[in-house]
Design goal:
heterodimer; A: Rossmann fold; Rossmann fold; seven-stranded mixed β-sheet; five-stranded mixed β-sheet; 15 helices; B: Rossmann fold; eight-stranded mixed β-sheet; 9 helices; globular
Chain lengths: 389, 270
């Protein structure tokens, strides 16, 4: 983590609106990005993500950043790639239908290892209701081999906090990072506490100290990521989607091909423990666990409390990120309970991952809802009762 | 006494390890690369201090041979990349090499919008009248009635005049030449590199491998160049030609060169 020097602090304070706010979720995400040092945003209008672009267009120029409304999502995502390679901390925001278009640019960024942050304020097909139906798209949407990093805030505060986290992960691992949101939290107003600037830990990408003749643009230790070189300073880097060797030269050597993709995947897979975060609620004596993510955490905690009032010992494992899968935490919980309830706002998707990790340890039961709204705590409670009758 | 081995002084701009290049024998892309590095040399511009962008296709490979930072490998998004780069680094010269398919087909909207915004970049569009790398399919720039791999009975679509489109969309510097005009190409590129704003240099080029063989029934690059010569005319002579004589032909020359504010994203200076 880099520390901000005293002389930088003044400028930084304009970015960090320290204090207690009552703020819209989409705005909190913007403030998180600005606090994290975002310099560039490009986006295309789409509901329910519009408040993000609108506030970005207002806030970024105030702190010396640049805002572009692209002619489409493809312009936006590739402008991000360009601005990221040019040294910027960059972000876009979209919603499911717009995220479809962005796969091409995301795939490029995974391959050339450009740090970018994408907010997907997920929505139902053709309309703006709440859903988590696209969680596999966040993971597997692009062609080619790569690993996705997806953080899942569950409140306005976390929309702020996790966006900073997303920027840090993107910069650290030179990988796109997705902030998963949906209408419930995006369009909710809630208490937001923005800490003083000097308390915010930021990670900035590493630049090479090598001379241009010695620089290997895609040379990195096993499971690590390469150092950047600035554009236009004689480093002659080719950022190509095509298979490339450590020198960045387009190359069809199967050994180079394998090395590239092993490292691109390995830098996330092998560092999953460092990336993944979970939180536990009432898990100490729990006989059952709800494993859930995003806004579904909210009714899940309430449902666990209600279940405990009835004598059913339920705890909650909250996944702060869903990709990479927090396997360690899920496996540990699976070893300590008789059953996991996988609560999610779709027809049952992440339950597949939980089942895979919990195999042989405990039963896994999906509690799903795809009605354009999050679960109520009573619905979750009723489903748990039903399943354990 | 053995003659000293003479090396073209412009080789210093090229990546030695990438040569020989992968273009077909007789392809115009090699000529375009040649004219371009001559222009750079003339202006004493160092490609190592610039960014070059190629999308996908034969033309997109041109900058791979230049010693420079570059983005490559996604079809049609060259101007989208450039938009982001120019927002972060407005002083960094950005030159794009795009084929007609890349720029006018899949990247058509990015081109129109970048012209409208007057994004400060140079675009060299090599127009070989078809999708060449994929094997000679019809493009928006394919002349009407031409036979290609996907218009086996002749193309029924009218073609784009990409320069006309760029001027209409707001580009501030637009020229068209052919590979058979080395001096004009080089000078046009020099003007483009010095122009502040959106420059489009279209170079009509021969693809003997595909367009030549399928549409013109010849694999001879000279014959394809003769065809290009016969189907283009100098803009200066336009007044002396009848509408019939100009029918189906592309004018060559400089179509616009004006100064206008360049795109700077949303900022508080307005």
């Amino acid at each position: 983590m880099t520390t901000i020097h005293a002389n930088q602090l003044d400028a930084w304070q304009k970015r960090v609106d320290t204090g207690v706010h009552f703020m819209l979720g989409n705005y909190a995400l913007v403030e998180g990005a600005i606090s994290a040092g975002c310099d560039f945003f490009a986006g295309y209008p789409i509901t329910p993500a519009n408040e993000i672009s609108e506030r970005m267009s207002q806030r970024l120029p105030q702190v010396g950043g640049k805002f572009v409304q692209g002619e489409d999502e493809l312009c936006s995502i590739f402008a991000l790639a360009g601005a990221s390679l040019a040294g910027g901390k960059v972000m876009t925001a979209t919603a499911s239908a717009g995220f479809n278009y962005m796969q091409e640019g995301l795939g490029y960024c995974y391959t050339i290892e450009a740090p970018i942050v994408v907010a997907d304020v997920m929505r139902t097909r053709g309309d703006n209701f709440a859903t988590y139906a696209d969680i596999y798209q966040l993971r597997y949407g692009c062609s080619g081999d790569y690993e996705a990093v997806v953080v899942c805030p569950s409140s306005v505060q976390e929309l702020y906090d996790y966006t900073i986290w997303a920027f840090n992960l993107a910069e650290k691992y030179r990988n796109p990072v997705i902030v998963m949101s949906e209408a419930t939290i995006a369009l909710m107003r809630e208490r937001l506490e923005i800490p003083p600037a000097e308390q915010i830990e930021l990670f900035n990408r590493r630049y090479t100290s090598a001379a241009p003749e010695e620089y290997l643009p895609f040379g990195a230790p096993e499971n690590g990521c390469p150092d950047f070189a600035p554009l236009g300073k004689g480093y002659k880097t080719i950022y190509s989607l095509n298979p490339h060797n450590e020198k960045g030269s387009i190359d069809w050597d199967p050994d180079d091909f394998e090395r590239l993709y092993k490292r691109i995947c390995g830098k996330i897979r092998e560092n999953a423990d460092e990336i993944c975060r979970t939180e536990r609620f009432m898990m100490d004596d729990a006989e059952y666990a709800i494993v859930t993510y995003g806004s579904e955490v909210r009714p899940s905690i309430e449902a666990a409390r209600m279940a405990r009032d009835e004598g059913m010992k339920v705890g909650v494992l909250k996944l702060c990120n869903i990709w990479p899968v927090p396997e360690k935490a899920i496996a540990e919980v699976a070893g300590n309970v008789s059953r996991i309830f996988a609560v999610e706002m779709n027809m049952g998707r992440y339950v597949n991952e939980i089942t895979r990790v919990a195999e042989g340890k405990c039963k896994v039961t999906p509690i799903t809802k795809n009605r354009g709204q999050i679960h109520t705590s009573t619905e979750i409670l009723r489903a748990m009762r039903e399943e354990t009758k | 006494m053995a003659d000293e081995l003479k090396i073209n002084p412009l080789r210093k701009y090229l990546r030695k390890e990438k040569l020989p290049h992968f273009f077909c024998a007789g392809c115009g892309c090699g000529q375009v690369l040649n004219y371009y590095i001559q222009a750079l040399d003339e202006l004493q511009m160092d490609p190592e201090q610039m960014l070059h962008i190629g999308g996908v296709g034969c033309t997109a490979r041109i900058p791979i041979y230049i010693k420079t930072d570059m983005c490559h490998g996604v079809h049609g998004r060259t101007l989208a990349w450039a938009t982001g780069v120019k927002m972060m680094r407005p002083e960094l010269p950005v030159v794009i090499f795009a084929g007609d398919g890349d720029l006018a087909s899949i990247g058509g909207n990015h081109m129109i919008q970048s012209c409208r915004r007057n994004l400060d970049v140079t675009v060299v569009m090599v127009n070989n009248m078809n999708f060449a790398m994929t094997g000679g399919q019809v493009a928006p720039t394919t002349p009407e009635e031409a036979h290609t791999m996907t218009t086996p009975y002749g193309s029924g679509e009218p073609r784009f005049d990409v320069c006309k489109l760029a001027v209409a969309a707001g580009a501030t510097h637009v020229e068209r030449w052919t590979t058979a005009q080395p001096l004009q190409c080089k000078k046009a590129m020099e003007r483009a590199l010095q122009h502040k704003g959106f420059s489009l240099i279209e170079i009509v080029s021969q693809c003997p491998t595909h367009y030549g063989r399928y549409a013109l029934r010849t694999g001879d690059p000279m014959k394809v160049m003769e065809y290009i010569q016969a189907t283009t005319y100098s803009k200066e002579l336009a007044g002396k030609l009848t509408e019939e004589e100009k029918e189906g032909k592309l004018p060559l020359g400089e179509f616009i060169c004006v100064e206008k504010p360049v795109y700077a994203g949303t900022n508080m200076e307005l």
